[in-house]
Write a structure and sequence with these properties.
The protein has 315 residues and is mainly alpha-helical. Helix content is 42%, strand content 4%. It has 12 helices and 5 strands. The strands form 2 sheets. It has a 3-stranded antiparallel β-sheet with strand order 1-2-3, with no helix packed on it. It has a two-stranded parallel ribbon with strand order 4-5.
């Protein structure tokens, strides 16, 4: 995928919205998979470039590289199947082709999760994953005095994820938030792992993979900082709509609760303008159809809500 998404905005500011998250979770798996492939193939047909994953039924963490397609098109990069074997100075691939006089081989094998400084009674690694409650707390400790921050691979940026993990952990350490019984925490780790396998498979590289917005909200609930969209809609409709349809940025978790920031509202309402501002080194007049396009988008959203409501009412 390209980092540059719809209307030139960074991909995550368009993809990671609460509205998109609800739509994705409401769609049947096969339809979600088809829509994802269609969107990714708008830039270039991955099958034509040999970049279609083998197991297309699983979610994959996308590779963001704006140069790769053009390098393949120009012949600077050649996509090959898996390596069958190596000789002294060549590589033999599964399709029988051979690359002679190989200078360097780089094994992009990922990482092995280990904690050599801790006993297994504290943290035990199983299948390259650690069964932590909400990816943070070892569930069997007598007291919650240790948290693991950042041992996670979300389908989104790691910084806001780790920040919310840390905010929750410090409140637990201080006794302001209480963890559930051990049995509940263990059951949660089992359920979470089953969901991960269903979505991402059993590959070692996906061992700590998780979704993004849903996980952020889980952490935010633990810290008491998750915004109440319904209440927000009644008090501040403009802000509520921006929170729902706009990028799910860390500012959303500074609106209420511990760590509340007075500037969060303004930061949310102006974030899209500030994101694109560095590119506006030459100011141009907006096209005449700009207002029409915005109106069509609003009508499309309203039509979607009506369709969902009618579908639910029939059931």
């Amino acid at each position: 995928m390209s980092r540059v998404h719809d209307n030139g905005y960074p991909w995550d500011t368009i993809f990671h919205t609460r509205f998109n998250n609800i739509v994705q979770n409401s769609l049947p798996w096969f339809l979600l998979q088809w829509m994802t492939e269609q969107k990714m193939n708008q830039w270039f047909n991955h099958e034509n470039y040999g970049l279609m994953p083998r197991n297309r039924s699983l979610m994959k963490e996308p590779v963001f590289n704006d140069d790769l397609p053009s390098r393949i098109l120009c012949g600077a990069v050649t996509v090959k199947p898996l390596v069958k074997e190596f000789t002294e100075n060549s590589a033999i691939f599964e399709d029988g082709t051979v690359e002679e006089n190989v200078d360097v081989v780089i094994f992009a094998t990922g990482y092995s999760i280990v904690f050599p400084f801790l006993e297994e009674s504290v943290i035990k690694v199983e299948d390259n994953r650690v069964p932590l409650y909400k990816h943070v707390f070892p569930p069997h400790l007598e007291k919650p005095t240790m948290a693991v921050i950042g041992l996670i691979q979300p389908l989104g940026p790691i910084m806001p994820t780790s920040e919310l993990q840390a905010r929750w952990a410090t409140r637990v350490f201080k006794g302001l938030s209480v963890l559930p019984p051990e049995s509940t925490m263990v059951a949660d780790t089992v359920r979470r792992n089953e969901k991960r396998i269903k979505w991402f498979g059993t590959s070692r590289s996906q061992s700590i993979q998780t979704d993004f917005i849903e996980y952020l909200d889980e952490l935010a609930i633990g810290s008491g900082v998750k915004p109440d969209l319904f209440l927000l809609l009644l008090k501040d409709p403009k802000l509520a709509l921006t929170v729902f349809f706009g990028p799910c940025s860390p500012f959303q978790f500074r609106l209420v609760g511990p760590g509340k920031w007075a500037g969060a509202r303004n930061a949310i309402l102006t974030q899209t303008e500030r994101i694109i501002k560095p590119t506006k080194t030459r100011i141009v007049n907006k096209g005449s159809n700009h207002l029409l396009i915005s109106l069509l988008k609003i009508l499309a959203v309203l039509a979607l809500f009506v369709a969902i409501y009618l579908s639910l009412s029939q059931h």
